[in-house]
Amino acid sequence: xxxxxxxxxxxxxxxxxxxxxxxxxxxxxxxxxxxxxxxxxxxxxxxxxxxxxxxxxxxxxxxxxxxxxxxxxxxxxxxxxxxxxxxxxxxxxxxxxxxxxxxxxxxxxxxxxxxxxxxxxxxxxxxxxxxxxxxxxxxxxxxxxxxxxxxxxxxxxxxxxxxxxxxxxxxxxxxxxxxxxxxxxxxxxxxxxxxxxxxxxxxxxxxxxxxxxxxxxxxxxxxxxxxxxxxxxxxxxxxxxxxxxxxxxxxxxxxxxxxxxxxxxxxxxxxxxxxxxxxxxxxxxxxxxxxxxxxxxxxxxxxxxxxxxxxxxxxxxxxxxxxxxxxxxxxxxxxxxxxxxxxxxxxxxxxxxxxxxxxxxxxxxxxxxxxxxxxxxxxxxxxxxxxxxxxxxxxxxxxxxx
Length: 402
Prior knowledge:
Number of helices: 14
CATH class of the largest domain: Alpha Beta
């Protein structure tokens, strides 16, 4: 029985998202005695058998509720001796009634991540949690691989190398291989952050709308219109991207606009990639040129190219000429962005850390191993795998007594 419910009949967790849906799923863990005493008073199978008499894996239709007249039609499946899932109508009402019935029977409702952590381990819980946050099929496929055992097997192999005193160079190489994907892994559940910047009225709002395919940002020809950071999430080539349309950068004495500009600069500092827009239909200014110099690793966009070109050779050779009106350059912007954000794509079956905890413990293990401290490296990897840490002092004492 899970360790978090010693004084309760069992635990229940809602596995599907809160809100409207066709079907909702609640997973329940309970002692056999509680299934007899509590669950069988709530669930009446259409085949007339009690839940404990249903074979593991059988899908059983029946009614749920204390009142047989007004009960809820449900499907129940036993996953193991004391674990089963209740599938009911989606939406809040049916879920709430079932969880309230379970609460009256002394079952504790917990977040699904906690239940999964107790049932399968913290590593599996983290992978499943990140999978639930995936917004594209491409990222979900990679996260599903990690959740299905790819990451645990790789970490288990690494722990074996360290614990068995194999070559430190081999273990360090495997650690470096895992850490090389850390930034990528964290972005599988959190979109890459791309900030558009430029002087006021260079068309940042128009470009972000064109890239999204619909109007998300307000477009107006008055400089300084965007005072806050407007964000919208999309996907390019299957990779999730958060586009941020910020206040135009310029010197101003207007307090509200100055606050927006300060916020924009903060967004630029923390961004994964930056698009610097200049209006090529107007002659270049010192502010344009300074922006290009300040953000030398940004992708420069020669915007409004449909209105003419007043820049000529002053536009960097790597710049992309684009138009929000005609669509020119939009595909090239996407391709350049993805090449910068995702320069390499992992092969199928590659182990990838997907949470900050995992990355932190891998870094800890690497540093300890590089310093020749195998015990600390082993302990870090065991914590990563949610296993009991080695008692290094006890081991050393036993070795000394020999």
